[in-house]
Design goal:
CATH architecture of the largest domain: 3-Layer(aba) Sandwich
Low-confidence stretches: 1-12
CATH superfamily of the largest domain: Mur-like, catalytic domain
Shape: globular
Radius of gyration: 28 Å
Number of helices: 20
Largest sheet: 6 strands, parallel
CATH class of the largest domain: Alpha Beta
Number of domains: 3
Helix content: 40-55%
Length: 557
């Protein structure tokens, strides 16, 4: 047996169930495993947000420059100092006294403080406790418990100076252990996933007459889904995928839990972060018809190139039958290119700048909404909606085209348009006498931001304030897009509050380049601080309009 400090090794008796140190080692291992699972929350959240793909996890580590790893390292360092100092004060190196555990009190205290900080940090999309996450967390708990006990045993035998204090170094393992356990459990998850997919496919076969519409695009999917649901509901009993259920497991859940025998139409939003994602969803749903809302530079970091994004959106075009109705956004260049490449006969190009089968004329927009004449195959109908913004009108036209081809007449389409309400956080206008809030905080994109800034300009006679972190997930295009956003805001805003440093330099460049008053640019670390600054700007003597343009995804915070 190895003896470093003149203390006889206790390994021989370590595994004796009557040995207090063995019992405490088990207790500490269990407690530490629970603590580490809580500390893993942020890493698990990002893994979940990345669709359980390690590419997105790596991008987060890179983009945040290992911010959370630094915090864990600081936790380990401070705890280690406390353990060493405590051990020195009580001379635990030359005895087996229970005082050797006192240093761990500081570790558990520091860890709990960090956990409270992480939990209290505002999150756009919190960790969802799914069955898959429960399985992964269980594996992590077992892994953490075993590795903690193993380290205590090894330290007792070979590095007695740390002994139970070795526990304080375990948090630094989290960034590696989380993806490792994920990889270990992947084969099981694939089997479970295939089982659910088979069940969903089997259920869909029970409804041979069900009309299934797939909607994909770099942006606009959710808004088009809601508009189409409202219009089609004039004639059909419609099932719509809720929230952002646009992944294989999300749509599987929709089919198994939301789709009922009485439904005549299923609207499936289809999201993607890498090539093949849409093809996989088409294999699951087998859509009859399709809407392509856009091809842009969203998620460029995971796709690698705009061309890959375009090919992925085109997977929906290839995934529908030959006689499918396919609607393309004519105001988006990438979508327009897909329209021109499409060889299927029932394709439609719809947009504000298109004079095709469906179009809008006599468009007027003010702070109360949008009025226009809807033209469908030479039939005309006056329409009005509370929705504001060019891309909202684009979404309406694409949905109207699909609905008309599925048998909804122009009068019912106009009625549904008049009843549309904004989707939460997507150019949603909330009015009061003194303050108007334009909430465009959900995953804004370049085209959407242009429309939002135009809407901001509609509110005359008010002081205009924009709160924004800029545009993200755009890869090499990000700096250019944010400089241009800054230039547009300089012409439409009286104050600009920049949130976070991620796009601060680019936004400042665009604002100052256009001659915006530097004294009216406010830089903040997060949205909470931005709201405090916003209250400082606003007084009771003036009327204001505040645009919240985009909100950083959790993988940027």
């Amino acid at each position: 047996m190895v003896n470093f400090f003149g203390v006889e090794s206790i390994l021989a008796s370590f595994f004796d169930v009557g040995n207090i140190h063995f019992i405490l080692a088990i207790i500490i291992s269990i407690a530490n495993a629970g603590l580490l699972c809580l500390l893993s929350g942020k890493f698990l959240q990002i893994l979940q947000l990345s669709g359980y793909k390690l590419s997105g996890y790596r991008v987060w580590l890179r983009d945040t420059k290992g911010k959370y790893i630094s915090r864990l390292a600081m936790l380990c360092f401070l705890s280690l100092i406390c353990v060493l100092v405590t051990n020195a004060l009580f001379d635990t190196y030359h005895s087996e006294a229970l005082f050797s555990y006192l240093g761990l009190i500081f570790y558990f205290y520091f860890a709990i403080v960090l956990i409270i900080y992480i939990v209290n940090t505002p999150q756009k999309t919190p960790l969802v406790q799914t069955r898959r996450m429960a399985r992964l967390t269980t594996l992590l708990f077992i892994f953490y418990m075993c590795i903690t006990f193993l380290l205590i045993w090894l330290a007792t035998e070979y590095f007695y100076i740390l002994r139970f204090g070795i526990v304080v170094l375990t948090p630094i393992l989290l960034p590696v252990v989380v993806p490792l356990c994920h990889l270990i459990i992947v084969p099981l998850e694939l089997l479970i996933r295939k089982s659910y997919v088979r069940k969903a496919k089997k259920r869909l076969k029970k409804y041979p007459n069900l009309i299934k519409i797939g909607i994909t695009g770099s942006y606009g999917k959710t808004s088009v889904k809601h508009v189409l649901f409202q219009i089609l509901s004039e004639k059909y009993n419609v099932c719509m995928s809720p929230h952002s259920f646009n992944t294989p497991m999300g749509l599987t859940k929709v089919v198994l839990n939301y789709l009922k025998p009485e439904h005549e139409v299923l609207i499936a939003e289809m999201g993607a972060k890498q090539m093949g994602d849409i093809a996989e969803l088409c294999d699951l749903i087998s859509p009859n018809h399709a809407i392509i809302t856009s091809v842009g530079s969203q998620h460029l970091e995971t796709f690698g190139s705009v061309e890959n994004i375009k090919k992925t959106k085109n997977e929906l075009v290839h995934g529908v039958p030959e006689d499918a109705i396919i609607v393309f956004n004519g105001d988006n260049e990438g979508s327009k290119e897909l329209y021109e490449e499409c060889l299927k006969p029932n394709k439609y190009l719809v947009g504000l700048n298109e004079k095709g089968y469906v179009r809008a004329e006599n468009i007027t927009v003010d702070e109360d909404g949008t009025k226009f004449t809807l033209v469908i195959n030479k039939k005309r109908k006056a329409c009005s909606t509370k929705l504001i913004g060019e891309h909202n009108l684009q979404n309406i036209l694409m949905s109207a085209c699909m609905a008309e081809k599925l048998g909804v007449n122009i009068h019912h389409i106009a009625k549904a348009i008049g009843e549309l309400t904004p989707v939460a956080h997507r150019l949603e206008v909330i009015k009061s006498e003194s303050v108007v809030v334009i909430d465009d905080a959900y995953n804004s994109n370049e085209e959407g931001s242009k429309a939002a800034v135009k809407v901001l300009g509609l509110f005359e006679g008010r002081i205009k304030i924009c709160v924004t972190p800029g545009l993200v997930e755009m890869g090499a295009e990000e700096r250019r897009a944010n400089i241009e956003l800054g230039e547009r805001l300089s012409k439409a805003s009286d104050y600009v509050i920049i949130v976070n440093k991620v796009n601060e330099e680019a936004l400042l460049t665009g604002l100052l380049k256009s001659g915006f008053d530097e004294n009216k640019i406010i830089k903040t670390e997060n949205l909470t601080e931005a709201k405090i600054k916003l209250k400082e700007i606003m007084t009771n003597e003036e009327k204001y309009v505040v645009l919240f343009e985009n909100d950083l995804p959790d993988n940027y915070t």
